[in-house]
Amino acid sequence: MKISHYFELEEHVTGGIHESVVHQRKMLDRLDLEYTTEPTLDADVLHCNLMGPRSVWYARRARSRGIPVVAHTHVTAEDFGDSFRFTNAIARPLRPYLEWAYGQADALVCPSEYNRRLIETYADAPTTVVSNGVDGEKLDGFESLEAEYRERYDLESPTVFLVGHVIKRKGLETFVELARRLPHLDFAWFGPLDLSLKGRETTRLIEESPDNCTFTSYIDDVRGAFAAGDIFCFPTYEENEGIALLEAMTAGKPILVRDIETFSWLEDGEDCLKVAASDAGVDAFADAIERLEDPDLRERLGSNAAERSEAFSLESVANQYRTLYDEVT
């Protein structure tokens, strides 16, 4: 079986979608499946990771030739807003486009049950939940970088941290206000920071953040973030899955999340702490972080999180792709 594993705009798209594609190709390698990254009609399956116009063009032609099309549902109108400059304006017309684009597929791959429930309101194509997975090998040896990254960014334990693009939707305002509310703790957001891509409100939040709130911008070794951070605080409002969260769990870090539907599989008090959406103000998050200053609680939650994350390893997820491809061909 040969797979055309296509990622439109691969050289330009970063973040979670890029990481998911990297993980998928590692899993295809594990399965010893032949694949090309080119959008070719000389394949048994066309698998598109971003349903842009070029992907749709190939999808329509593939189906006309009897080649099944699999599409990943990384993008929804719901998670597109409050991301970068102008994305709110684009989010509304994006939905009808995605409804049409996802409708070109024979099967849709959703990274979470929440994403699947959402996508089923977009298109009638069969849906399958396959986690983006977490690459444990990527984090190997992260502990050895603790001193280097704490010194580089002047961080003291316990550091509250987050990993990923700095965007409003991920709870930027909450993160900054928490740093202001808890001046005795260091807060660090590790991730790309291009202010030219941010809206005015996002830029203001970053520029007016307190001294104990550090935005590192891009770091050359993401392991350093998990080495220097102690409490993974993820107050996101909308997420399709959250690869950085899975990485934090794999690293044995205690996690704190807003109780949104995406994270319904997490158990409050067992493998995380949750702040109820109805009570998700800064006060509730601050109370939870103060609880997490207890090293014993951090150790228990982090250990449970690491054990829970094993179900999302690339080894655990890989066979779902073989099953999917077998089903569509």
Description:
With 329 residues, this protein is an alpha/beta fold. It is 40% helix and 15% strand. The protein is built from 14 helices and twelve strands. A six-stranded parallel beta sheet has the order 2-1-3-4-5-6, with helices on both faces. Strands 9-8-7-10-11-12 form a six-stranded parallel beta sheet, with helices on both faces. Strand 3 (45-48), helix 2 (53-64) and strand 4 (69-72) form a beta-alpha-beta unit. The longest helix has 16 residues, at 87-102. It starts with a strand and ends with a helix. The model has no long low-confidence stretch (mean pLDDT 94).
In short:
With about 325 residues, this protein is α/β, with parallel strands linked by helices.
Instruction: Give average pLDDT, whole number.
Output: 94
- Strand pairing plus helix content: what structural class? alpha/beta
Adjacency order of strands in the biggest sheet: 2-1-3-4-5-6
- Helix and strand element order: EHEEHEHHEHEHEHEHEHEHEEHHHH
Q: Give the number of DSSP strands.
A: 12
- Spans of 5+ residues with little confidence (pLDDT < 50)? none
Question: What is the helix tally?
Answer: 14
Shape: globular
Helix share, percent: 40-55%
